[in-house]
Amino acid sequence: MSTFELVNSIRFVINGFGIWDNVCFIQGINAAGNGGTQPSLPTSAMYQLDIVLKKGNSLAIRDRGGTSDPYVKFKIAGKEVFRSKIIHKNLNPVWDERVCLIVDNLQEPLYIKVFDYDFGLQDDFMGSAYLYLDSLELQRSLDVQLDLQDPQCPDQDLGSLELVVTLFPRSTEDREALRHAVRLIWQIYVQQQNLRLSDLYRKSQLWRGIVSIRLIEGRNLIPMDQNGLSDPYVKFKLGPQKYKSKTIPKTLNPQWREQFDLHLYDEEGGILEISVWDKDIGMRDDFIGQCQLDLSKLSREKTHKLELELEEDKGMLVLLVTLTATVTVSISDLSVNLLDDPHERQQIIKRYSPLRSFFNLKDVGMVQVKILRAEGLMAADVTGKSDPFCIAELCNDRLQTHTVYKTLNPEWNKVFTFNVKDIHAVLEITVYDEDRDRSADFLGKVAIPLLNIRNSEQKAYVLKNKELTRPTKGVIFLEADVIFNAVKASLRTFVPPEQKYIEEEAKVSKQMLQQNFNRVKRCVLFLINTGSYINSCFQWESPRRSLCAFLIFVVVVWNFEIYMVPLSLLLLLTWNYFLLASGKEPREGSVVSVFMDCTYDKMNSDSEKKGFLDKFYAVQDVIITVQNALDEVACFGERVKNTFNWSVPFLSWLAITVLCAGATLIYFIPLRFIVLVWGINKFTKKLRDPYNIENNELLDFLSRVPSDIQLVQYKDLKAETSQSPSKKRRNNPG
After folding, report:
1. Residue 13: pLDDT band by 50, 70, 90 thresholds?
2. Average pLDDT, stretch 515-533?
3. Residue 434: CB partners within 8 Å, gap ≥ 6?
4. Torsion of CA 577, 579, 580, 586, to 10 degrees
5. Is 222's pLDDT higher than 50?
6. pLDDT of 39 over the 50 cut
7. Which of 116, 133, 236, 390 could pair with 124 as two cysteines, CB 3.0-4.6 Å apart?
8. Where are the transmembrane segments (predicted)?
9. How far apart are CA 274 and CA 290, in angstroms?
10. 313 exposed, middle or buried (CB, 10 Å; 0-12, 13-18, 19+)?
11. Distance CA 305, CA 691 (A)
12. Band of the pLDDT at 174, cuts 50, 70, 90?
């Protein structure tokens, strides 16, 4: 449980008592009156104060455009207990926000301050007022209008605030119950920090089923922008898992058509939290509405079409939700190993045999990895030792070993079993050092594509840095087995890959921007060189080459048939295959050297990045978009190249199969009929399946082909038995 989750848990419990915004029992609030006298209330009792911040009237102008961006703060005894949302460009803002406070001393006033929000600058003061409570009757709502003043200029008219204030008596039992709840949550938090792989912790890592969600559309969302529209996107949260949809600009009836899967860790289902937001560039996104879905009320193995109303009639979301009850991951000791049992192994092989290729297409296979031990790890503690533990990740599945304390050569001897939904997924093994008082320290990481695993082979992998580009100190010993159905794996190659939901947030990186630019530059130069070569044939720079090119052009054009297109690609794949079989490696070594030699001064870049973000935060989203666009363009070009370079033999063989089938189909069937069938399929797809999610099979295939930088990350490093001190220092930058 993180500190943020702890605070939210305390907030949740306190809300159960109808109170929040002061766990430490806020000192005194008095409601302002107009001088009237009321019977004095006991100042030492416990009260609940409900405040509705309604609106502001004729507030002060603080921006050049003749407006302000006001928000309100409540303070008691110098401590901030509430902050309202920001209303942009409005001198008569309407908040309609409710806050509930607990007070046990009515002598302290509530100090209310209004500010104008200025992005990247200090916020401007717009006025303040005090709220007193000694003349307020119990259990009676009072409309209060507070005139804002500036202590430096008391005669200046700064407008007013309108509030509704209600005071309720509270018993001392509520105070004790609140303290007991906070104390109980803290005890649970401490217990969870001390557990690593207990039975409870192990159970929390194993998911019991899959929630497949298709986000179809939104209806009648409320406008949040000045143009009367919104730029909506949706956030989903199920336990620790989160998913964020794409943003649909300028609409109140967005069409998302997105599909994703979440894991069920609770056998009863759990609560799916859904919130809708309006995207605002350069400022905080606006909250549109929210709703919840109780998954325990949905039947399994059935698709449910749901029309969920957002709270307070702020619109509707249309979803298709399917619950699948499956147990697909497990943790066991080395002595309990399914694949070591010949009978169990045969049952698993039979389950993924070719005869069952069209049963449950999402169940492609299974992978079992034995995390045995590590040697020569980096010392992360001041004692010269570490407390290492290991995390194995496959897409969104994440399992963790226990911690071995005070050693640089730990032995875990754990067996992890994962279900394979995509044979092109990458198994990531990360080693951390446990620190009880802070986040774990990174010790090393390896990334292993499932297609690169050789069954039952125990192998020592050299640990790499976080970027997987350079070695760090230590090796880890693993043994893995992958059993899969090739037909299912081939079919799954042409559907969108599973998105990873827990990823680090994208950040501005000068190093990454330069690296992506160089990758795009290499692809563009390749195209330019190819065009120059073809142009040289036209220019007759080499008469022999130009004559051959002319004859080939005449023969091909004269005898051209459409089947020659996949056939030529097939010949290119075959040519590269024979080059590879003859011992001529593809030009991967040069790619590795390019990335391995690209080093930068990270300390300077980090300091520059922080200064850049402080001054130019408004353009961060633009820079990240450009950075990611460069990465996408580079990946596309590299993946096309690597398809024909046999970087992944499985994909190259699959490409050969598809190209052979395509050439045969086009050869025997006239093109006009193929185009006709394709057009009919395209025009009728929407009628046959109104909720169909569009995809491009070619792009989905290319997404499985690793780019050059991924080839570097997945390349095995040779462990050196003896190294000089200078080499060790070079290989261990941390």
Report:
1. very low
2. 80
3. 196, 387, 388, 389, 403, 405, 440
4. -110
5. yes
6. no
7. 116
8. 316-339, 548-578, 650-678
9. 6
10. exposed
11. 11
12. low
Structure tokens at 573: 């794949």
Distance CA 484, CA 501 (A): 24
Nearest Cα to Cα of residue 591 among 712, 704, 447, 469: 712
Can you give the pTM of this predicted structure?
0.50
In this predicted structure, the answer to whether residue 111 has a pLDDT above a threshold of 60 is yes
For residue 35, which amino acid is it?
G
Looking up tokens 């050439």 gives: 663
Distance CA 215, CA 235 (A): 11
Q: What is the DSSP letter of 138?
A: B
Q: Percentage of residues in the chain with pLDDT exceeding 70?
A: 73
Per-residue pLDDT at 178:
56
- Distance between CA 585 and CA 54 in Å, rounded? 72
Cα 480 to Cα 411: distance, rounded to the nearest angstrom: 17
* Token reading at 261: 């899967």
How far apart (Å, rounded) are the C-alpha atoms in residues 133 and 119?
Answer: 35
Least confident of 173-182, 296-305, 693-702, 715-724: 173-182
Tokens standing for residue 244: 């964020």
Q: In what order do the strands lie in the sheet with 232-238?
A: 241-244, 232-238, 271-278, 286-294
How big is the chain, counted in residues? Answer: 734
User: What's the per-residue H, E or C state across 233-293?
Assistant: EEEEEECCEEEECCCCCCCCCCEEEEEEEEEECCCCCCEEEEEEEECCCCCCCEEEEEEEE
Return the number of other C-beta atoms located less than 10 Å from residue 403's C-beta.
18
| DSSP, res 136 | P
- Tokens at 164, concatenated: 């509704």
**Confidence grade of residue 656 (pLDDT, cut at 50, 70, 90):** very high
CA–CA distance, 135 with 29 (Å, rounded to integer): 11
